[in-house]
Specification:
The protein has 4 helices and no strands. The protein is an all-alpha fold.
């Protein structure tokens, strides 16, 4: 699924930072450096990024029910 637009707990806009987060994680930057660059300071917002699972690609492999 796609990342939620806002944090469920505090309402801060987070969806615009997700692509950059994935890029930095792929480049093996330390996680504290990533949070600092993205401006994510709250624990609830960090939870939104770290607990997100991208399953759209897996779901597209299955046929639709007719």
């Amino acid at each position: 699924m796609i990342i939620p637009v806002r944090c469920f707990s505090c309402g801060k806009l987070i969806a615009d930072k997700y692509e950059r987060y994935i890029e930095l994680m792929g480049d093996n930057h330390p996680i504290e450096e990533i949070w600092k660059e993205l401006g994510i300071t709250r624990f609830c917002c960090k939870r939104m990024f770290t607990s997100h699972v991208e399953i759209v690609d897996d779901l597209l492999k299955f046929n639709r029910l007719q």
